[in-house]
């Protein structure tokens, strides 16, 4: 979050449009959490509900990486954000999503009660 806030608030940037990626941070894990809670683990290789949830989660993740790039590549004479703000936001995305992956790896172990989430 620090990278995202820096990308918005530093004196050279001063535009808060990149902060909209926080919405994607909130929405990204929700489909996977819901699908893992309400699907049965029958041992089959394919679970349509879980696959749809992963697809939606990946849509949010790709969107959070695409938003700052699209904002920085807007018309060249007046871009919405500067490239430095874009890079800081992308660095924040990497940190946040690495944390989410670590969360799911940690709490997806067999000896952990995942249903509490």
Automatic annotation (TrEMBL):
Its main location: membrane. It is a multi-pass membrane protein. One of its GO terms (biological process) is late endosome to vacuole transport via multivesicular body sorting pathway. Keywords: Membrane, Transmembrane, Transmembrane helix. The chain crosses the membrane at residues 15-34, 54-72, 84-107. Signal peptide: none annotated. It is found in: Membrane. It holds the Pfam family Vps55. One of its GO terms (cellular component) is membrane. Belongs to the OB-RGRP/VPS55 family. This is Leptin receptor overlapping transcript-like 1. It comes from Dinoponera quadriceps.
């Amino acid at each position: 979050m620090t990278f995202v806030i820096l990308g918005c608030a530093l004196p050279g940037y001063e535009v808060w449009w990149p902060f909209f990626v926080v919405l994607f941070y909130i929405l990204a894990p929700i489909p996977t959490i819901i699908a893992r809670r309400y699907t049965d683990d029958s041992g089959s290789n394919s679970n349509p509900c879980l696959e749809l949830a992963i697809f939606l989660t990946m849509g949010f993740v790709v969107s959070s990486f695409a938003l700052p790039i699209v904002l920085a590549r807007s018309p060249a004479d007046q871009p919405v954000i500067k490239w430095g703000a874009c890079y800081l936001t992308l660095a924040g995305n990497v940190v946040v999503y690495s944390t989410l992956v670590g969360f799911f790896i940690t709490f997806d172990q067999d000896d952990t009660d995942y249903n509490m989430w």
